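job 3f2a | input accepted
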Amino acid sequence: MEIWQSLPLDCLISIFSLLQDEDLIRASTVCKEWYYAAETPWLWRRMYLQRWSFCNVSQLLSDTETHSWKAYYLRRSHLEMKMETGRSCADYTCKSLRGHKGRIVGFAYLAGNDGCSDVWNCTPVVCSASTDGTVKAWDIHKGVNLWSSPAQSPMQDITVDPVQSVVVTSDSTGTIKTWKGATGEEVASFMSGFSETTLLSFNNKDSSFLLVGTILGSLLVLSCPVLCEVSRHMVCDSFRLNLLLSSPDRKWILAGSKEKFDSSPKVFYSESVCCPAEDEDSLCHSLPVTGCCAAVFLPSQPARLAVIQSDGLFSHKTISVFDLTLKESKYKKEPQAQQVTSFRVELSHRSDVVLEARGSSTLLVADGKHLKVYTFKGELVASFEDHLQPITSLCVDSFRVVTASRDLSLRVLTWRNDPEHGLTLASQYHLLGGSLTRSRGFTRVACDYSSIVASVDSLDGKDVLKAYTFDF
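job 3f2a | predicted structure (472 res):
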């Protein structure tokens, strides 16, 4: 022991860098010299960023004067342990958020825990819209309604702009409105002229926009929150534009219709539609696929897009993956989509297919009661049938996957690194949503890092939100 105690501090730190967290904590109890070495911020910072490399480091660095890297690591590890075991009462609390008198058409996190500097002080707020004509904001930790808008025409869709703390809704009359997230005060109103719209909040170059897909196949781009028209583009004439996505780096927008089987979705270079130049057309490219029923951008590869397409036969569908680029010459710019892979998937259920992604090469497909995990090259690495009824929605983050089902349960799965197949999932536990005698099951699910919220399709027409919060 005397030899180890006589080692210089730098040598001890170098040796301790080979230890895991539990061993490092044990080493800190041996003697004063080992304690100082084991408490070195660099060691805990290194372990934190190795385990959670996706984190916003600038956020953490701005708060390290208040909390140490060791404190961050231990607190977050404790939360993940609770999320992995999912024991009722011991690991999480469940609250029913009641107040809507109609069907909930959508909800979204206005403020949430991103797993970085918010691990100590965060009040997740979820906003929901209903056919009862109201928008509501909820503190999901306390389970209370923060504000509610005056009743108006039945709502059709909802999205949020967390950067500006703005809520955006559309109703059955075609009216699009923005609301202050903190108070529910109406900010602006825009008459789209369309009874059905699909909304997507979008930020580009420090400016905020709203993308609106219409029932007649056009894409409107509005400034947000003032709702002034910026540009308008035809995507699929006379068919509902109900597939809107933006790439993680906000450089690309996908727009398409899941109803017109012979049409091709289009990708737009976002700057050309959000900041259009005079007398210049938008930069767009039609993907060489038809019958697109689902699509997703891969989070760690911003310009990589996966789509599920149909050849007309339900059971025969293909996943195609494209890398998007902007080819620039002296006189023009031209978007291009290069197909990097394509493979067949066999689907067994006639419900809507759900497609999500993790990292740069992992795809998840929900097909009826089945959840399947593929590499982007087509290798099926895992398949699960944890539900008794079809999966209606997926929520994916860096730690877990949550599936919502018509059987009124949520299934929590966590990511694992398999020696043979690489990244895969391990099925963990169910979160129950109540009684099927009172509802038709879950319809949507959303997550932040420490909570899960899902909407319940109630038989009495008064839908409910279920909020599951995991305590640090």
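job 3f2a | The radius of gyration is 24 Å.
job 3f2a | closed
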